[in-house]
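Rotation project, supervised by the postdoc (A.L.). Task for the rotation student: set up a whole-complex structure prediction and record inputs and outputs verbatim in this book. Inputs entered:
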Amino acid sequence: MIKEKIVNFEKKLQDNMKDIYCPTHLSLGHEGVADEIYQNIKDIDWLFSNHRNHHHYLAKGGDEKKLWDEIMGLETGLNMGFAGSQGITDKSINFHASAILGGLIGVSTGTAYALKLDKSDAISVCCIGDAATEQGVFWESLIFSALNSLPICFICENNGKSVDALLEERQSTPIGPRVKPFDIEVSNTVEEAMKYTRTNKAPSFVEVKVKLECAHLNMATMLDLCDQEEPKN
Ligand SMILES: Cc1ncc(C[n+]2csc(CCOP(=O)(O)OP(=O)(O)O)c2C)c(N)n1
Ligand SMILES: [Mg+2]
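Outputs recorded:
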């Protein structure tokens, strides 16, 4: 159900790309991860996403109409059309995304720390791509999470690409085995990882291999826009 909702939403965006004036990364091919998040996330939990976030937002129970309007740059959008696709925030459902690669890893770790101090039953879920594991803050956050036994689940959607750069040309060893020595539970599925974190109030990591079934972003539209005048609102 949620998978279908995500795929339909993304395909509708694909059909309307010429009307989109913000950088937009579709999640086609990543919806299986969102499905597992949807099955295991609770309202009280926090979900932190990245530039490719529509599937995560809908999995957290986000408002499809407000997301659509936001991407279209409308005042009725989730963030009044100012955030665009990449930087959406919905405080009402504990959801944040950011265009800065790895930008919310530290924030999701800090949130997990706050949850621990508050003795909350909620968990923090941090969704990243394979390229975000190349940011220092990822490894620093693993150290801090393990040291303080934080209720955080790191989900890495590995589509083997950072824009057009292939993973095997960027990293010499697989990601998961490098995470384990940080005293982090490395799970095989999103469900296992989220359940581990919830039950043990401790950090977990899961790497899911996915195939992105669309372009990295709406590059053609972005390039077209460079030759045009700014849209008048
Ligand atoms: C700090 C920073 N550096 C570079 C970029 C440009 N950038 C946007 S997406 C991206 C690749 C992201 O790859 P990955 O994390 O694997 O996610 P994917 O797009 O493959 O889902 C890059 C380098 C950025 N947004 N922020
Ligand atoms: Mg990637």
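Student's summary: The first strand starts at residue 46 and ends at 48.
Supervisor addendum: The pocket of thiamine diphosphate (ligand 1) is lined by residues 25, 51-52, 99-101, 129-132, 159, 161-163, 216 (CB under 6 Å).
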